[in-house]
Amino acid sequence: MRRFRHFIIVAVLVALSTVGLRALFSVILALPRASSAEAIPIDALFNGHYWMIAFLFSLIMVMMLYALFVFRRPADDDSDGPYIHGNTVLEIGWTIVPTVVVLGFGVWGAITLNDITSPKPNEMTVNVTGQQWVWSFAYPEQGDFASSELVLPVDRTIVLKMTAEDVIHSFWVPEFRVKQDLVPGRETTLRITPTEAGEFALRCAEICGLNHTQMVATVRVLDAAGFQAWVDAENAAPAFADMTPEDRGAFWHSAEGLGCVACHSLDGAPGVGPTWQGLYGRQEELEDGGTVTVDDPYITTSIIDPNAQITAGYLPNLMPQNYADQIAALEQEIQAAEGVDIDIIADLIAFIKTLE
Amino acid sequence: MFKTLRIILTSALVRGILGQLIGTALGYGFIAGLRALRGAETPWIYEPALAFGAIIGVIGFLIASGVLTDWLKWIVGRRTPLRHGAPEGKPEWSRYFNVDYNHKVIGIQYGVSSLLILLIGGIFAIIFRIELAQTGMQWLNNNQFNTLFSAHGIIMIAAILGGVGAMINYLAPLMIGASDMAFPRLNAFSFWVSVPAALLILSGLAVGGWDTGWVGYATLSLRAPVGMVLFLLGFWVVGFSSIAGSANLLVTVATMRAKGMSLFRMPIFVWAAVATSIIQLTATQTVGVALTMSVAERVMGLNFFDPSGGGNPILYQHLFWFYSHPVVYVFVLPGLGVISELLPVFARKPLFGYRWVALSSLGIALVGFLVWAHHMFTSGMADALRVPFMFSTMLVAVPTGVKFFSWIATIWEGKLPKNPPTPLLFVLGAISVFLIGGVTGPILGTIPTDLHLHDSYWVVGHFHATMFGGFIFPFFGALYYWYPKMTGRMYNERLGKLHFWLMLPAFWVMSIGQMSVGLLGMRRRIADYDPALGIEGTQVLITLAALVIGWSVLIMLYNLVFSQRRQPVADPNPWRSRGPEWQIISPPPEFNYNVPFEVVGDPYEYGLADTTYIRDVARASVPSGD
């Protein structure tokens, strides 16, 4: 009978503690705003887990502290406790019950996963590219323009088709809950359905080298009309053939272009690579002790073979080695779309010359 | 004073370091010489030469320290007896600086180096934790921050492997009644090979660091600064220690148990050591392959992982996690074994469900091999693969749950002391901390919630809770509990309790704080965070808690060092344990048991009058007087 009383007290304490902890979690383990359709079933699963966490933590801690404070012996008592070496029924019970519970959570997880990854009607595709340490986004269904911020219409399922140029990156907007790596050499997919307009931050979640911390982009969710207006404005941007080489150079420098902006500032601010301000014609000291005057051949070499001449005070191997390929591919694309031959490196040199 | 210096300068440790320096210079010079013959100049830090130098340097350390000497003599046909005791003409303490074949000396060598490395890793953590207290960059730059957290990870893993080695080496032979490990020379090799490995990893910091974290994912590892290659090679060499040490332990337990010690009569810690060793023996090779491939791709241009040459970056993750998931059970199983070992002694009750607890260690080891891809739920695997790994991951909770329930049932109605001594406090604290780590695991195992939590600070909090609950707290508890066994003296109880009461609440704050900021959007491995996340207050708390943990560990080190001189001689069996190691003098004699013992009962029959676990074989064979 006394044993029975212990269990009743413990049961009451565990129940109180479970409810109390679950309430506490709402404060100390709060989730960010839920701003996507995918967040709703995920948050429901979070809630289920939080109850289980609160219960299991309470169960073990209450029983441990109860045993410590209720059954403890005074300092002068050196007798042994009761000789209870096990109970097979109990052991089988606390093997089977947790198995069923965790498998239940597994089924819940599988259903939720299917829910958030299955194709939806009226989807829209955005191509996402990550490279050290910039994001760029292309809109193949809206005229195939590129953007350095991710602009999305509200209440429409977006299929993000993602890849990386160099190392693994990861797409995470906490308000959308879901996360997906960008892997070089393959395409990965993520579905998100923004449910409220607003501005969010996209941050790279997979360590991607020196400036991983700073690999962020803005996400703007607009209503349908606002999104259409933004698309129209982007499409109204002049064709490459109609732009001056200097303007094109500025575009290539940006995140929509080749992403040079990730490392090379335009205003003299220090970065991973040398600033472009006042670059042309400057005498640069090299890591190997020599000096070089920045001219057309030097800039060309520095783009297509960046390790050949490293400026003193900067690190080798940081700049992608594949810009020759990237640039050739872009030039072909423009040739196919607009029928003009563009020399991207010449554009960049023209742009650099303007940066006094 | 001069004599002490001379003994240290001629020790295996110093000779080994010199050998490593010379070997590195030779290896580096060899490659540089080849280049010079071709007329090419070699820059000051040239990676292929550095890599080759690193490998030759490790061999140099092993040769110069003398850990290979006996084996080399055997090759040329000379037999060498197993040397015991201090080197000729040198004092007893010099054993710890030299190649010694006694398992207790090696256990203490592991333990002391583990604590030293733990201290270095902890200092690194505190340096970058202070940077994270506020938004904005205060006193580190990106490269320093990346290098520090990467080094913190691998250094702590080396420290934990050392601590595991310490507990297993010191305790397992004593507990099973063996005079030593099965292969004493291999045992010394396992310890000594980890020293040049640790030096390699630390020297990676000196040549420019690296920025991949301890996981070293391709393709970032192929572009990381040059410290990367020393990290990869150091990690690779540590693997030898794991493989050799675990093979040794398995043979020892299989063949050298005392008479009458059937498998289910072994002390429960030995079961944990066996499960741990099975994992180490069978999984370490795959990470070795992954590291070898990374080095080969960096240094020789072989193409395994870089997709631009036809490689596959995800392949690295599979190979890496096939080892690195099971290895977290290597870190925690011995600690859980310590908890199971100590609770019956303090509760004065048998371990509840001994067989279930023993087999749950093997269960965790087995299931641990089937869950590696849960680290890759966001890597782009097909759902048809993600979902099975989700179910296998959830199943880890079952054997872990068996342990928790058995611990509670052991102390239920037990007679825990009203004023718990330090080891018991650490064991109970370990249960509470491992519980935090345990209950925050399934939420990472279900894919939809993991999509939010992956690579966030939730993972950091969860992982640190499992490591502190599964290793740090039980390891510290074990250090206090077996301190009188190792030194013959009692630690200072007041300082021990102070250590505990500082560390436990600080750890709770740190770990729960980390999970809290992770949920709100704090990513892993970042040097700075967005003030818009609104987590600055919590970050300050986490940093303060980390500082408290650091100070509390210093209190423990002070206690362990100075109690050897200032504290009274300990009672031979201060915990009134039935364990065989407590039935002999402290510290134990060179060959442990002068008289072999025979197992005549179960190990934890507290409460059953007139029973013992062991009795001396000699006493049994003496004809009775009546």
Q: What's the N-to-C terminus distance of chain A?
A: 91 Å
Oligomer: heterodimer
Indicate the radius of gyration of chain B in whole angstroms. Answer: 25 Å
Instruction: Note the total helix count of chain B.
Output: 22
The appropriate CATH architecture of the largest domain in chain A is Orthogonal Bundle
* Sheet with most strands: strand arrangement of chain B: 1-2
**Mind describing the biggest β-sheet of chain B?**
2 strands, antiparallel
Would you tell me which CATH topology of the largest domain in chain A applies?
Answer: Cytochrome Bc1 Complex, Chain D, domain 2
Note poorly predicted spans of chain B. Answer: 622-626
The amount of beta strand of chain A, in percent, is: 15-25%
Largest interface: A-B, 89 and 102 residues
- CATH class of the largest domain in chain A, please? Mainly Alpha
Tally of contiguous helical segments of chain A = 8
Unreliable stretches of chain A: none
Largest sheet of chain A: 5 strands, mixed
The tally of structural domains of chain A comes to 3
Report strand order across the widest sheet of chain A.
3-2-1-5-8
